Structure prediction request, 698 residues.
Amino acid sequence: MSGVVAGVDIGSTTAKCVVLGDDSRILGKSLSVVGIDIVKDAERALEAALADAHLSRSDVAFITGTGYGRYKVYFGQLVVTEISCHARGASFLFPGTRLVVDIGGQDTKAIRINEKGEVVDFAMNDKCAAGTGRFLDVCANALGYDVSEIGPLSLQARRAVKVTSTCTVFAESEVTSYVSRGKDPKDILAGLHASIANRTLSLMQRVGVEPEITFTGGVSQNQGMVRALHQRLGAPVNVSPLSQYLGALGAALHGRERLSGGAS
Amino acid sequence: MSDVASPAAAQGGASPTFLRDARGLQRKLVEEYYGRLAPSEKPHPPVAYMLVGGNLTEIVRAFGYDVVFPEIVALNCAIKHQSLENILHAESLGYGLDVCGYVKNDLGLQDLGGTTSFGQIPRPDLLVCSFSGCYIYVKWWEALAESYGAPLFMFDVPYMREEAPRKEDIDYLVSQLWEFVHLLEKRTGRTFDMDELKRVLAESRRAEDGWVEFLRAGRFRPSPIEAYFESIFYMFPINVLRGTPEAADFYGVVNEEVRARVKEGNYPLPEEKYRVLVEGVPPYTNYRTFWDFFRKWGAVSVVATYPKVGGLFDRGFRHDPARPFESIAEYSLGAYVNQSWPLRRQIIADYVKEYQVDAAVIHGIKSCRSFTAGQGDLRDWLIHERGLPTLYIESDHQDPRYFAPAQIKNRMDAFFESLEQRRAVAAAPGVAPA
Prediction:
């Protein structure tokens, strides 16, 4: 098992870990909520993924940290930004990818990549949380839903409302205002998803929209968001049940390259 | 990509030990200057407040004035982490969140009494609004005039859309300069002395020669200077002390130090991996943190546009005692921020070639649209038209609330990771260099 590598992605909301075998098959993975002790969260993420793979720490030859908490992965040998990792992960899963859209807890990124999965250009949202996973969390709460429910509900909308606020806090007030005017929550949710799709499209245009487009990050698991992006782009986007793990997967792949003496 | 040697090493680089005597001398000059102008030090020369862009330092000096640049006071407060208190005070007076940080920092400071860690800022005897390209600045000067009851001279400088100034523009500025001279004669009771102005201009020219010699050292490989982060230290003499022998002598010390660096191999970084051009106003509130983000990747700024806000001397301009008013007019027109975007793009394109630049980093500031608007297009132009990897990041030069370290570091790390990756691929066997 000397070629086993692991990637640990510590995001603003969740910690993800992927353990890869010699043949780059995923042997185990984990997903957990990040708390205030990021060092422990990183360790737990690795332990959970190793348990999923039926392996122990001594089986792992190389560990790479990524995400905002990458420098807290003290037990790793390499740190790589999640921008490079999502690029590599997306390219691994969908080799035709030329544009990665990653919507996570506090960041939205558009990453243009070449045929080798290398970053050519990228653009990110400003430091405000509008258009990110946090934005959806806040608005779901305002409507009394869990964030996991809002994607499917938005698909049932009949006439999406227009959400114009560019600030998460103001958007929450806008949602409350629509509720008080008797608007159907499904229509409000569809409007929220469309508003994120609009913001995301403008980021994508900054780096150039080129198919194939792969959607990654936690928000990629939201079907309403997938459809909203598809509608706004007028083209399909690649999504996989593993999309949320692509940062961790990319980190593991960078580690594999480093282990074999490659570019990383 | 970074190896995780230790948690501390992962966060930033070591101390900038390449800085020697010049940095200490610059600190001394700043303290002495404001010390001399302190209200308690009687008598001190009259004080003219001026803006850096297109400033008329030589003319007021010829009448015995000293100069205070509120922008420079504000940036000194910001780098010493004193700007937020002033900004919050200005906001409590009614200045909105979106008003320029320079303006709020200065007006807040003035209203709080003008005490800083580097000296007591004197009240103005005269206000000279020397850069009319920014309308907020015009309003700032009007607010100061109302607050202090000091006379206000508005110097109207046309925007530059052509590289060479037009005769009509020069004539227009020269006529305003004469008007200014008459105002100064009236205020001081002194008769204008052309010989004195020529003497001041000759000193300015000497300082400009020395400043340019320093800036051009960035052309060496490796560069013995940090053209963005280090230059900021040395902008005080070229802007505030210009026209005095101290300014010219200061650059003599600086250039001696740079020559010694080359001789001793004492460079900004042990290994210059990336030669970077930096465009935009620095995030003074987090200046050292921002520098560390470059140093960690072996990136040295070999050329920067910001040090040119007080004059494009490296493009050949000099104050000229033989053409006193005309050369002052040309200087005012030639302020970096007064150039149209096609002209700014050309300057940057020339720098990329002359300084053998590998990549560009653009730092936009929320405070200033007149400097920043257009930087997004500049980024696209550099990437697509010039093939230069370019990163755009944004924070502020005065307001620390706009500096998000984790986000900025993330962008910087990702940018340099992609450069590293490209180099590794280009260096791989069988891959032709791009």
